[in-house]
Amino acid sequence: MTIPLQIPTGPMISFQAIPYPLPTSTQSRLQAMARDIQAARDNGENSPQVRAARLALNMTELNIRGALGVEFSRPSYRFGEPS
Description:
The chain is built from two helices and two strands. The chain is an alpha+beta fold.
């Protein structure tokens, strides 16, 4: 069975992509935050400590996107539309 190529049918999507590789200090900070989340899970999967650690990681990700991110654009694919 041959899968047909997907042809972009939607508008262009743009977003701030995080470049690879990240600076070593940024990688270390993200790894430490991931360890904090794992350690907070000892108090329960949905404990206030886990929620706070995830929020800190999400805010850090947004800050990284703002400081180091590069604008990336690609075509959108609309799946499930009738041909």
